[in-house]
Design goal:
globular; four-stranded mixed β-sheet; alpha/beta
Amino acid sequence: MKQPPVPSPRFSSRRHPLFAAAATALTVGCGLLTFLPLTLQSSRAEDNASATAAATKPRPLDPANLDPNAKPTENFYQFADGGWMARNSIPSDRARWGAFEEIEDRNYTILHAILEECAAHPGAAGGIRQKVGDYFAAGMDEARANAEGAKPLAAEFAAIEKLTDRSALPGAVARLHLLAMDVLFDADSGQDEKNSQQNIALLVQAGLGLPDRDYYTKDDEKSQALRQQYVEHMTKMFALLGDDATKAAAEANVVMKLETGLASASKTRVECRDPSANYHKMKLADLENLALGFDWAAYFKAIGVADPGDIDVKQPEFFTKVGQLASSTSVDDWKAYLRWHLLHATAPDLSQNFVDENFQFYGATLTGAKEIRPRWKRILRELDPSFGGGGLGDAIGQLFVEKTFTPEAKKRALTLVEDLRSVLSERIAQLDWMGAETKAAAQKKLAGFVVKIGYPDQWRDYSKLEIKRQSHVLNVMAANAAEVRRRFDRIGKPVDRKEWNMTTPTVNAYYNKSNNEIVFPAGILQPPFFDENADDAVNYGAIGSVIGHEMTHGFDDQGRQYDLEGNLKNWWTAEDEKRFKERGEKIVAQFNGYQPLPDAHINGALTEGENIADLGGVKIAYEALQKALARQGAGAAEKKIDGFTPAQRFFLSWAQVWRNNIRPEALRLRLNTDPHAPGEYRVNGPLSNLPEFQAAFNVPAGSPMVRPPAERVLIW
């Protein structure tokens, strides 16, 4: 669905407001899990209307969403979702509007009421209600933010200005890393890919202000124009800090040159999908020899990790480049780069002039959004960042669960999980392309899946985090710093497998390769994904397919490389691995053939894992539905609701969770960076491979919704 696609979910400092909230994925490249606060907004009247609509849960499967003029045999996505798409324009504060965003708005209505209550009645000092309430109240103090401008950052800018030579660069980078800011590279802790019980230090390529390295390296007209717009944006931001026009322009060009150097040494997102090629465990002395020119011992000491022990340097060539740049770039140029990334990271939390200019580039230019989101939604997104770190996600999550998630809902969700696990086990046993040895290992891995539903057993402890009614940006940095410290303190210690990598209100789900776990927060366990009062066909088609999707991630092109303990280890015979790759190549070719924009195709290699998971998820969930219907007795499989059989309602339910309208700018951005295909192709792509779908809607051979037998893909 929703992966974490590339590395397993981890915290990162990146704060690019590139996507509308709760997208179909956690979007990462080679880097660590991306932290994406939102900076989009609507008008007050539009926002109130949105809140009113969000308070009412929709029908689990609404016939009004269908397009009666479309044929399921020609374009099933249009047939299932065309009515909804025609009725739902994209709000001006959004780059995309779909089922995910509808659920998020309903969640936000609930969360907003919680925040208002905590701000008015914070309770005992040091409690989660006080911290949540004061964070929100400080964030809503727009007058204070406008009066202060960038003044709350004075100490950080002064520290950068004091740099006198390049030897001080590691300490300066460390200082910003401790505030969760994306400077030069990403550093974190995480599970050792080959010893999943142990946390080690991680170093990952990063340090860019544009969404991806390709934005710096491509020479097409659109890429060149966007780079120029980025330079112009930086120039304007430096000017808002008080730099004169000449200095601001010079600084922007310096940053662009440095980031281009980093991008040129960065791996592509497709290259980052190979876990073995992105695993290089070494000691500090090895790192110092690899990346000469940067004092790594000084850096680790500055972040409070004097002896990092084992370090997984994900992209060695990138860090060699870091060393070269560190030793060859003037200290004044580094000061410009550091000033930019400090400003870039905090701009959404400063005065309105910074907020507006930040939105113009990262919102309007990159995603096509027309207006910035209301302040309360922006503050809420920072307070509950959904995944990855910072904020007070577990604090607000506790309060959210009290109002939204019943024991009965959790019980039914767990039943769905076990139904799908049983079906996947049967399918593995029946595969004609996999040998007995590999099947036995696959069965052990499947049986070892850890299932997390709704919310964690143990909430995160925020007792050491001080939040008060001060400048909002200071609370943001304090919360980020607390999370960074928590994560750095894990280096060299055993992994806590009870930890969650998404917050409870998040409209998403994930499979974590290193824990061999599937996780479904309470935020997604509601219509149209899950409704405890809906018929089985609807629930198996929506959340059932999502569960199957996450299970299949354990056996996609990346997940299959990890064993039942979450270790990067090849448990396949050579012949079975060859057969799997042949099937993977077919799904890559299928999605390479889709062209959502006149000049842009889907990247089949980038989206391979998600497409495998979609195909497997729907296939497994459909078979699980047949078992559920059989338990209900004779006639259950033929009983119609709204004129549709259970089989038809299953496929309609799958299609309707992917309904969305999206702006061309946002679609282009996603095609460049997102490991998921656009919604239309997540529906039509898998279904065109399934005889079960063909039978349910009597789709004749040769129709657009039926792939020729020789091109049909079936893996799990």
